[in-house]
Design goal:
single chain, about 500 residues, alpha/beta, five-stranded parallel beta sheet, five-stranded antiparallel beta sheet, 13 helices, about 45% helix, about 20% strand, rod-shaped, binds adenosine-5'-diphosphate
Length: about 500
């Protein structure tokens, strides 16, 4: 029960009328409401009905003695403060009463000042009891809130259709939902309180979660999505984010896991379909292309200019379609992991020289300078698939020629950079606006403007380059300045 701070109700129990009246006078003067009783029974009755907070009690009474009354008061309400009124001769009894629960005593005959001191002390005591109770109530409420919050988080976690888990900064799994247990085949009895490795067998995901928890990712947008392949048919996508407190301090990591096995199957079906259709289209298109070339050659000088124009356009269009089909087949092969399956020691300088030799005629046709710049030669031997390397740099140099004006300058620079070989294809051509930069590695993305209008392409070159670079364990980056040129940088690990 909430205790009131109202200390205004006081009961004075004394056989002597003088003492009762005197006490009432002194206490009423300083604002208290005072009830009096001359006998124990009367006092107990008032106690039950009026609930005073302080009782002045004379120990010497006929019938039920003061000590018994004290016992009864304590039974009715322990928080009522009892102040014993006694004579000096009975001081020992008063001390005994204090030992049995009375709060204080006052000696008869007392002066108003003495009574003031005693009553003030008692009021202060009541105030402190009230404050302590208030704090206790607050503590209980925060514990309840905490429990409520916890059950809230549990409910939210449980309601996620995808797998969800939470780890602390030590990499200990502290919460997981049933969807997560199902995805990772964990028993419902398994408690979430050990290291993440005890629940997730994929080392890469465990490392990523620990890196995040230890604050290794300063920019949270840099945290990569993580794909796990648990068995032949089980593919999951995990998205992890740090849990931060109000001061941006990392408290742990939350991970959502999605089952993407069906998407993978669909993706594979799509790749197989594209590969099959492309394959079927390639030979008839090549035949049409060769036959058109033959007709143009045979009709040279005989056909009208219009006819010649139509045939030449048709030949160019079939060439475009053949390139598109070639790119689609390349992408399908990369997706199936076929293209990078034959790594061998290669001299990158030789590969780059061959590509530049091959494309030189095209650059010459546009009066562009195409030069090689090898720094720190000879570069160390690389272990990689040479066809993949040819495709990467063939595409980049070919793009540099395509998207640089006549008379422009293209440099292919190779250098050693730590444990990587760094190759840069630098041109002073059209450049790429910032808004396009993040999209040019998407499939079929082409920038359409006045300068690129008449340049044919498929929009598949850079996606192929990016996929191949990744499959060699490398990285690609582009910096560009519209109107001033672009630099594509490829970092490839030596081994
Ligand atoms: P494609 O060249 O077949 O259009 P890519 O995927 O190779 O396809 O390139 C995508 C787009 O990126 C191109 O259409 C072009 O607009 C832009 N691009 C690529 N390389 C360069 C470059 N060196 N300079 C300027 N723009 C470029």
């Amino acid at each position: 029960m909430e205790k009131s701070t109202d200390t205004t109700h006081i009961l004075v129990v004394d056989e002597e009328k003088d003492i009762r009246d005197r006490s009432k006078r002194i206490l009423s003067k300083i604002g208290f409401q005072v009830m009096t009783a001359s006998r124990a029974e009367e006092a107990l009755d008032l106690l039950e009905r009026e609930k005073p907070s302080i009782v002045f009690l004379d120990l010497k009474m006929i019938g039920m003695g003061g000590m018994e009354v004290l016992e009864q008061v304590r039974k009715i309400d322990e928080t009522i403060l009892v102040i014993i009124i006694t004579e000096y001769a009975k001081i020992k009894l008063a001390i005994k009463a204090v030992k049995q629960g009375a709060y204080d005593f006052i000696l008869k005959p007392f002066e108003p000042d003495q009574m003031h001191i005693v009553i003030n002390r008692a009021c202060e005591k009541i105030r402190l009891i009230y404050e302590a109770e208030k704090l206790e109530r607050k503590r209980i409420r925060s514990l309840l809130d905490l429990g409520y919050d916890k059950s809230h988080i549990h409910t939210i976690f449980e309601s996620f259709p995808m797998g969800a888990m939470l780890t602390n900064t030590d990499g200990q799994l502290v919460l997981m939902n049933s969807a997560f247990r199902q995805l990772f085949d964990l028993s419902p009895d398994l408690k979430p309180d050990s290291q993440i490795e005890d629940y997730v067998s994929d080392k890469g995901l465990c490392d990523l979660v620990k890196d995040i928890s230890q604050g290794k990712y300063i920019d949270h947008n840099d945290i990569p999505d993580y794909e796990l392949n648990l068995s032949d048919k089980k593919y999951f996508l995990a998205k992890a984010q740090p849990v931060l407190d109000g001061k941006q301090k990392c408290l742990g990591t939350v991970v959502n896991v999605m089952d993407i096995s069906n998407m993978k199957v669909l993706d594979q079906l799509k790749s197989e379909f594209v590969a099959k259709v492309s394959h079927e289209l390639r030979s008839p298109l090549s035949t049409i292309h060769e036959q058109l070339a033959l007709v143009i050659k045979n009709m040279a000088g005989e056909a009208s200019t219009d006819d010649q124009h139509i045939l030449t356009r048709a030949k160019e269009k079939t060439q475009g379609l053949i390139s598109l089909i070639g790119d689609l087949l390349d992408l399908s092969r990369i997706e199936e992991g076929i293209i990078c399956h034959e790594p061998k020691p290669v001299k990158l300088e030789e590969i780059l020289e061959n590509i530049v030799d091959f494309l030189k005629t095209r650059a010459d046709g546009k009066k562009q300078s195409l030069t090689l710049d090898f720094i720190n030669t000879p570069l160390p031997l690389m272990v990689a698939d040479p066809i993949a390397l040819e495709s990467i740099f063939g595409n980049l140099i070919s793009n540099a020629i395509n998207y640089t004006q006549d008379g422009g300058k293209i440099t292919v620079r190779a250098d050693l950079s730590g444990i990587n070989i760094k190759v840069q294809v630098i041109d002073n051509g059209f450049g790429i606006e910032d808004r396009h930069l993040e999209n040019i590695f998407e499939r079929f993305y082409r920038i359409k403007n006045e300068k690129t209008r008449y340049i044919t392409g498929t929009g598949l070159g850079l996606p192929i380059v990016e996929e191949l670079t990744k499959s060699l364990g490398g990285l690609i980056d582009v910096k560009s300045n519209p109107g001033r040129g672009s630099t594509f940088t490829v970092l490839l690990p030596i081994k």
